[in-house]
Amino acid sequence: MTGTALRVLIAPDCYGDSLTAVEAAEAIAAGWGGARPGDQLTCAPQSDGGPGFVGVLANRLGRLRTARVSGPLADEVTAEWVYDDAAATAYVECAQACGLALLGGPPTVRTALEAHSRGVGQLVDAALAAGARRVVVGLGGSGCTDGGRGLIDALGGLDAARDRLAGIDVIAATDVEHPLLGPRGAAAVFGPQKGADPATVAVLERRLAAWAVDLAAVAGRDVAAEPGAGAAGGLGAALLALGGRRASGAAVIADVTDLPVDVAAADLVITGEGRFDDQSLHGKVVSALTGLAAAQGAAVLVLAGQVTLDADALTAAGVTAARSIVDHAGSVQRAIDDAARQLEGLARVTAAGWDAGSGLGEVRE
């Protein structure tokens, strides 16, 4: 039954800093198509709002723009964003302006304290200048923990920024539900990933707490406690204070890329990300896809950098099978250094063993 032609939807997220979602989709398609040339492949790379958000949208909308903006530290960077003229909608990715990858090296205590979001505000400013009536800001992969102060400063300060965005539909696109402050907040949870040691986390928490008072004053409510406020080092809180609303980044991409239509036409959905773990099942790309696929009776295959979920968790999540690039490559380092080729190879061997006879499919060992 392995010869039965399948309609395959390839819809991965990015794989950390190793592969963009577009690159990952291309690698999977090359590998799968090499082993099963009779299958009908559709590529629809996805994002949850983090790095690659703009690239995925440009892949579908094709309206990419660039702007020179402040990076997370001292240097300027060239940031990409997407503008949909017909919908007067701008799509901005915070990682393009204040991403970890723009720090110039591994994050340190110094960068944890000094990194800022000013460039994101400059991108929002460019969107407003282009005539945008809706601004969607993808939140994820940031190198800063400034609570969005830099963004607001770039827009003229709290009162001026709120006035400028009055009447603009501002959306904070994120899969993160963390509040701004406390043990589940931006500093405590994400600060260490950005170079902060315990003492620095305490400094960042105090800064954010003081800033939260100002945000509450302009918003008329305690935005710091709202879900998503802690996203991207607190950029979520700033956007909420300016009149914005939170939405799932994965859902935003799914809507723009007509994902439900693609899933409805598929026998098999292939997705993936850098690390497939319990967090993947809560608001991220994989969870969005499994929900849609379950309604259509389509199988779901996850090809991830690493897989930490056991068989019972996979079944409960609606995942037919999950395979690891690290296991295929033989080491974490090789999986990272040779990511595209290793993912292509994993897709090829998985396709060669895929049995669609049951209608759901499984990998034959």
Number of strands: 15
Overall average pLDDT: 92
Shape label? globular
N-to-C CA distance? 15 Å
Would you kindly provide a written description of the structure presented here, covering whatever features stand out?
It is globular and about 65 Å long. The longest helix has 22 residues, at 198-219. With 365 residues, the chain is α/β, with parallel strands linked by helices. It is built from 17 helices and 15 strands.
Outline the secondary-structure elements.
Elements lengths: L6 E4 L10 H15 L4 E4 L9 H9 L2 E7 L5 E9 L4 E5 L1 H4 L10 H6 L3 H12 L4 E5 L10 H6 L3 H7 L4 E5 L12 H5 L7 H22 L15 H7 L3 E3 L1 H8 L2 H6 L3 E4 L3 E2 L8 H12 L2 E6 L1 E2 L3 H7 L3 E4 H5 L2 H6 L1 H14 L1 E2 L6 E2 L2
Parallel strand pairs: 1-2, 1-9, 5-6, 6-7, 7-8, 9-11, 10-12, 11-13
Antiparallel strand pairs: 3-4, 4-5, 14-15
Helix pairs in contact: 1-17, 9-10
Compact summary:
By secondary structure, this protein is α/β, with parallel strands linked by helices. Helix content is 41%, strand content 18%. The strands form four sheets. A six-stranded mixed β-sheet has the order 3-4-5-6-7-8, sandwiched between helices.
Characteristic key phrases:
365 residues; alpha/beta; 6-stranded mixed beta sheet; 5-stranded parallel beta sheet; 17 helices; 41% helix; 18% strand
